[in-house]
Amino acid sequence: MNFFSEENRMLAREIIGRYPKRRSAMIPLLHVAQAQAGWVSNEAMVEIAELVDTTPAEVLGTCSFYEMFKREPVGKYLVNICVTMSCALAGAADLMERAQERLGVRVGGTTPDGMFTLASAECQAACTEAPCLQVNYRYRYRVDAPQFDQLIDDLAAGALDDEIPPHGITARIRQRIPAERAVGAVPPDQVHEAPVWLTLSAANGASGGGAG
Q1: pLDDT for 76-118, tens place per residue?
Q2: At 29, which CATH number?
Q3: Ramachandran region of residue 136, left (φ > 0), alpha (ψ -120 to 50) or beta?
């Protein structure tokens, strides 16, 4: 039984076609799998292995290396609260305590309705905006308890659907490369000239330059 929907299977083939080696498409296909289901199942990894001509073990090795790929179900919204030094000094422990009270789950837990998974995170690179958190990797800065409650209310009501998609969807706009600017799926050892995009960039730079 196939994991990917027909639409995503077609997308997978398109993505694979961008690379000189099929295995190079592994990480993009893991993202497609997670966008479809919200997490990456064993069935998904088996199908990815077949598509890129490798083993499920290699796909698992790649998937398990990256924190953003989840290998078990999570909520529609993954709430990551930063607990590293700057956020800790600015009240991250109090914020985490409030989050556990409001959601009714401990860190690592998912609410019974499947809406929210609560997690702690290491530095989110927003130390000047502490304490901060991410919902499906979208930032919220300087969050206090009332703001957290409002965030949860808004998410549950669908008020932030345009801003924060369900877990697994990294972007709403998928990359599209015009044919005339594509490098092409050519093995590196068969490339003997500069790619088209580099030639065009150089030509445009030369034509747009002014006198010094």
Answers
A1: 999 999 999 999 999 999 999 999 999 999 999 999 999 999 9
A2: 1.10.10.1590
A3: left
